[in-house]
Specification:
Growth Hormone, Chain: A, about 0% strand
């Protein structure tokens, strides 16, 4: 068993470098090589057929008849495409693939026998040429659809260059074997050999779909469509249909160029090579073989890497650019017609079967899987044949016009004209790539969001308002009306009165209060009459009456003081009485202010909690507190939580700077934190230094510090935003992530703009590189501190802590990316990468690949891809060369990186060292003994008890008053065990 295991490991070590050379991962290799074998054998058969039929066709009909073939092939290709799509509605996809692959080869036996028996008379060669076009359509469909089923969008970028190189290998094999085969069995019988190769390929495909059955749906597409009808009906609209249309145009342009060059190539061979049919076949075979060698080298060793480095769409623009350039050289006379055509054919075949073949399946991946195979069938099976037919019609028309206009120079003018057509088509191809690129990421994001709803910003605001009004009028559900008012307040706060003021009499007390508070944010005198009518028409709930009175006093130019005097009597509810007194303090004369002060004094010292609460709220409405300031200290220590919170809000409302420290103290406690936060936000920059000091203090609880940063962000001033950015530059770990979230949440992208102004793109990229370098240290630690080597519970805790640190670093990378690129794209990518589905992970990576443009892009994408730590360390080799360490040395190295580790990971390091009895360096250990986090100090003390029992007595006395009760108890216990005197 051990020898077998060693043999397998040795075989893997031998195979792995070869796979890396081909840019294939081990887990993809089985599928990729089976697909390569299928495509190679099938393509050998097709190429034998193609060369044989082409030579026979030129000998019988000549190149001038080729446009008729293109027109007829459009018909048969479209029929095949519709039949292929129809089969998917009846049969499961895997059976469609196998059935069509087998049916491709069967008619060839009829054609091969018929060429000798002449059962079909003189039409056999013509029909064989037409069937060749149908075989091309089906073979490309089978290959691309099977690849898209077997591989994700990222896997297919790596694997498809190898798979598509099957046709290149077939070029070499068929090119060198065809002359020998022809001389042995004759040209007509080569067609029979082609049929045999196609059937062998179908057999391999049958094995492949059975071996990887989970990758293929069991149901027919009709049942899949019925199951996902609602989803796909939404998805295949708007941007997705635009994208599909552009994909159709892209492949149509590719096909048009191929047909134009195919016709020119055969025409120039017929004109320039005055030789026998067999020699023409040999020339084409040798040309194909030499081309195949170059293509094979390009596809195996260049295509995959250059696509990963430059991206799909830069590569998609290379073929038309080169074809257009060579066409212009021929049009300018630098190359003659024959050499120019051969060069164009060489460039087209080289790039079509390498770069274009590699990226073709990728273009279909953003389309939802329920519709992908259908659209592939439509594009490759219907649109391409129709393009071939229309191009053939255009060729016939062009030839007819040139024949009647330039009889003597028809061949030369025809060559120039088709070269011009090639150049113009190449230009249109480049423009299609440009537009396709802009829609690619958008559709990927839409697919990642899984049918997210249309955002309100894109909706018709008037229609939205009408919907709100209808809901408020018709609905009898209180919570639904409350939600409508919240929506209205959020999206159109300045005009809420227009909708809400007529509805006030019909609302419940809670809705009336909510509506009046919304209107009070932007008080408009236009609605004063409606509020006065509400107050006069019916007895209102005290809370509603208080808000209504406040609205009246904010909007009425000549308020009636007599009304306030009536509300200041003892029998009036305290919320109304307190408001009336505060308004009197604000606007009344000296006698009225004295009376109001007396009323508020009685409320603030009243035995009932509600009286004191409303008294404190009233203080917040007053401008001059005068003698009432004497009660503030007492109220801040009131036994009632509601009173204390109301007093904190009153301090902010009246801007009592002597009591700002009370707001910070209130921020420390969960019970008063919300009130303190609202108060600090209301004071804006006045308390900003106090908040910054609290947030930046490492000895404060993490929850309090995070809430402080959030409050600074909610202040929303230029100074508060700048403070967030300045601290971001020196923060690490949880603090950095918290600051990034706060900055991203600032409205109108104020945080993103501030980071851009202060740090710039280079500063954000520097922070990203820091996180990537930290990930390199984590992967090295996980590799060296394997659980197999350290089988302890403490090691398991450390392992989990390092894994959590990896997740935190990746999260930080995604937050940082949102400062450089469209946040919705980055969030969609992040959401996809969190999925367990391989398709979603690949989709997320593809979104990032086509969104971000940073120096470490390739490294980042490979890190985010789910690979073993060893593979990631190899990718990170340029940033941090991996040097294997012993577990103890790696642990010491981790402790040296204590500023980067989370507190829990750092504590786990000391617990592992204690359990394994490994020594740690002195300076980091002593530094961690003064960590702001209690459980880190506790872990260090536990380690020192085992590792340095002589040093411990010197340290313990200074720690006996530790603020953390657990650490303090541990210190006292250790002192007792060591017999040290514990002086309290």
């Amino acid at each position: 068993m051990r020898q077998d295991g060693k043999a397998i490991a040795k075989a893997r070590n031998i195979v792995r470098p070869g796979l890396r050379l081909l840019n294939i991962r081990p887990e993809e290799s089985g599928r990729a090589f089976l697909m390569f074998l299928f495509y190679t054998l099938t393509s050998v058969g097709i190429l034998w057929l193609e060369v044989s039929v082409a030579a026979l066709f030129l000998g019988k009909y000549g190149a001038a008849s080729l446009p008729w073939i293109y027109i007829a092939s459009a018909a048969i290709g479209s029929v095949i495409g519709f039949a292929y799509s129809g089969l998917q509605k009846i049969l499961p996809l895997r059976w469609v693939l196998v059935l069509t692959a087998g049916l491709m080869g069967l008619p060839l036996f009829l054609f091969g026998l018929d060429l000798q028996a002449a059962v079909l008379g003189g039409y056999t060669i013509f029909l064989a040429r037409l069937w060749l076009e149908a075989i091309h359509v089906v073979n490309e469909l089978n290959t691309s659809i099977t690849a898209n089923q077997l591989f994700t969008i990222r896997e297919v970028r790596r694997a498809y260059p190898l798979i598509s190189s099957g046709v290149l290998a077939a070029d070499v094999v068929s090119g060198f074997s065809l002359p020998v085969l022809r001389s042995m069995i004759g040209l007509p019988n080569v067609i029979l050999a082609s049929g045999v190769m196609l059937l062998i390929g179908a057999g391999i495909l049958l094995y492949l779909v059975k071996a990887y059955r989970p990758f293929f749906p069991d149901a027919s597409r009709r049942r899949n469509v019925e199951r996902q009808q609602d989803f796909t009906a939404i998805r295949l609209r708007g941007s997705l249909w635009t994208y599909v249309s552009l994909v159709v145009v892209f492949f149509v342009m590719v096909q048009v160029v191929a047909v134009l060059l195919d016709f020119q190539y055969f025409s120039q061979i017929e004109l320039s090579l005055d030789v026998r049919i067999e020699q023409i076949a040999d020339f084409m075979a040798l040309f194909s073989a030499l081309l195949g060698i170059v293509e094979l080298i390009t596809q195996w060793f260049i295509s995959g890497r250059i696509i990963e480095r430059l991206g799909v769409f830069w590569i998609a623009a290379v073929p038309p650019a080169l074809l257009g350039f060579v066409s212009l050289l021929s049009l300018c006379g630098i190359l003659n017609a024959f050499h120019g055509t051969v060069a164009l054919k060489f460039v087209d075949e080289l790039l079509r079967y390498t770069l274009v073949a590699s990226i073709a399946p990728v273009l279909f991946h953003p389309i939802p899987s329920a519709n992908r195979s259908r659209i592939q069938s439509m594009v490759r099976g219907i649109a391409e044949p129709l393009a071939t037919g229309l191009t053939g019609v255009g060729m016939l028309g062009t030839i007819w016009v040139l024949k009647h206009l330039h009889g003597s120079n028809q061949a030369q003018n025809q060559s120039w004209m088709f070269l011009l057509f090639t150049a113009l088509t190449a230009l249109l191809w480049i423009l299609t790539v440009w537009f396709l690129r802009s829609k690619y990421v958008e559709v990927l994001v839409l697919s990642a969001e899984q049918g997210g709803h249309l955002s309100l910003s894109k909706a018709d605001m008037r229609g939205f308002m009408r919907g709100i009004v209808d809901s408020l009028n018709r609905s009898h559900d209180e919570s639904e009306k409350k939600s409508c008012i919240n929506l209205l307040t959020h999206h159109d706060p300045k005009n809420v009165g227009e909708v809400l003021s007529p509805l006030l009499p019909t609302f419940s007390a809670a809705l009336q209060r909510q509506s009046l508070q919304a209107m009070l944010s932007y008080p408009n005198p236009a609605y004063l009459g409606a509020v006065k009518d509400l107050v006069a028409a019916q007895p209102l709930h005290p809370e509603v009456l208080a808000v209504a009175l406040k609205f009246i006093w904010h909007t009425d130019v000549n308020p009636d003081f007599q009304v306030l005097q009536a509300y200041m009597k003892d029998g009036v509810d305290p919320v109304v009485r307190g408001l009336a007194a505060s308004l009197t303090l604000r606007h009344g004369d000296s006698e009225q202010k004295g009376k109001a002060t007396s009323i508020l004094r009685r409320m603030l010292t009243h035995k009932q909690e509600r009286e004191r609460v409303m008294g404190c709220r009233a203080l917040g409405e007053a401008v001059y507190l005068q003698s009432l300031r004497l009660y503030i200290d007492q109220l801040l220590q009131d036994e009632s939580l509601r009173v204390r919170c109301a007093m904190l809000e009153a301090i902010a409302a009246t801007q009592l700077d002597d009591y700002y420290d009370a707001l910070i103290r209130g921020f420390h406690f969960q019970s008063t934190r919300d009130a303190a936060r609202r108060s600090l936000i209301q004071l804006q920059n006045e308390t900003l230094p106090l908040l910054i000091e609290l947030a930046a203090d490492p000895y404060k609880p993490d929850g309090v510090r995070h809430q402080a940063w959030m409050t600074i962000g909610e202040i929303g001033s230029m100074e508060s935003t700048r403070a967030l950015v300045n601290h971001l530059m020196t923060a690490w770990g949880a603090s950095r992530r918290g600051l990034l979230r706060v900055l991203l949440r600032l409205p109108n992208e104020a945080g993103i703009e501030a980071v851009s102004d202060v740090l710039g793109r280079s500063g954000v990229e520097t922070m990203m590189n820091q996180e990537i370098l930290f990930l390199a240290h984590l992967y090295a630690s996980l590799q060296d501190l394997k659980l197999e080597a350290i089988a302890t519970e403490e090691a398991q805790f450390l392992h989990r802590a390092l894994k959590d640190s990896e997740k935190d670093a990746v999260e930080c990378l995604f937050l940082l990316m949102q400062f450089l690129y469209e946040p919705s794209n980055i969030q969609a990518a992040s959401l996809s990468l969190q999925s367990n589905a391989r398709e979603s992970v690949a989709q997320g990576l593809e979104i990032l690949d086509n969104t971000i443009q940073i120096s470490s892009k390739i490294v980042l994408l490979n890190i985010l891809d789910r690979q073993p730590n060893v593979e990631k360390l190899q990718i990170l080799e340029d940033l941090m060369p991996y040097v294997p360490m012993t577990p103890s040395d790696r642990l010491r190295h981790l402790v040296d990186l204590r500023h980067l580790l989370s507190d829990w990971a750092l504590a786990c390091c000391f617990h592992v060292a204690r359990k394994a009895r490994w020594s740690l360096t002195v300076d980091p250990t002593l530094a961690c003994l003064h960590s702001p986090t209690g459980f880190v100090r506790e872990a260090v003390l536990s380690y020192l008890k085992v590792a340095s029992p002589r040093v411990l007595p010197q340290i313990l006395p200074s720690l006996k008053d530790d603020p953390d009760p657990l650490v303090s108890a541990q210190v006292h216990q250790l002192m007792a065990e060591l017999g040290l005197r514990d002086v309290h």
